[in-house]
Amino acid sequence: MAGEEQQGTTARQPKAAERTPYEHAAPEQAAQERSAEALPPGQRTAPVEDVPVGDGGDAGSGATGGGDGGDGGIPGNAGGATAKPRRRGNRSVSGMILSLLVIGAAVAVIYTFFIPHNDKATPVKRVDYRVELITARRAAPYPVAAPVGLSKAWKPTSVTYQQDKGAAWHIGFLDPQGQYVAIEQSTAPAKEYVTSVSQNATNTGKTQRVGGEEWQRWKGDHYDALVRKTGKATTVVTGTAPYADLAKMAAALHFEQTQN
Question: What's the whole-model pTM score?
Answer without folding.
Answer: 0.55
